[in-house]
């Protein structure tokens, strides 16, 4: 119900709440808010598998690294912010938006990988700002997802992280519940592209020079099915590669998940129905 508006006429308070005609009667107008694209009366219900909207990435230099949020972001979208920091004196805090705490992983190569999943609204601004003092070069990526469940947000959105040396195929760990986002950080002087496993959809990608090394940040997602979709195939051998498995939380509908191309998790039987 809309907030009630009362006006004092000198003797008593009169109800002046705005009303709308629904075709048969006048009723209180529902409260509206602008979500960045349209007027809404409430947040859309969470889905089991939040859907990817768009992404922005960059490789930057300096003690403060800033990256825009995707331009089509809406109120209630979940934003995945990834920061790969080359050295530096301390783990990078996320200065903006305030109150968002990333998880920090220091890889064997010395690179720090930071990940945060957070709820966007206009008061949180249009960019992320990281304190990366002491890092010569920093790789950043912001991805937005729609239909996520804010109640499922966690300070530890990374379900697992693995590292591999001297490989041209990177094994992908089992996808988790809801939407699983794979973020791969690869160090190589020759990598120009990669091919994801069937059932995994490429999202943001950034190939560039990272200090004295060639570092690539690649992301792709898939519905969580509890099994590995297969490897990420690289077009050259990389010195090292780290894979973070990130959960974008949704809300379960209680039904099993089928991923096309998954030979273990998507074997259809005579009593199976696809909707």
Secondary structure layout plus pairing:
Layout: E1 6-8, E2 13-15, E3 19-21, E4 26-28, E5 33-34, E6 39-40, E7 51-60, E8 64-68, E9 78-86, E10 94-96, E11 103-106, E12 111-119, E13 127-131, E14 138-146, E15 158-171, E16 179-187, E17 194-195, E18 201-210, E19 213-223, E20 231-248
Antiparallel strand pairs: 1-2, 3-4, 5-6, 7-14, 8-13, 9-12, 9-14, 10-13, 11-12, 15-20, 16-19, 16-20, 17-20, 18-19
Description:
This protein has no helices and 20 strands. It has 275 residues and is mostly beta strands. The protein is elongated, with a radius of gyration of 23 Å.
Give the count of helical stretches.
Answer: 0
Distance between the termini: 35 Å
Low-confidence stretches: none
Rg, Cα atoms, Å: 23 Å
By DSSP, the count of extended strands is 20
Q: How does the helix and strand content classify structurally?
A: mainly beta
What's the SSE pattern? EEEEEEEEEEEEEEEEEEEE
Q: Helical percent range?
A: under 10%
Shape: elongated
What's the story with the biggest beta sheet? 6 strands, antiparallel
Overall pLDDT score: 85
Strand content: over 45%
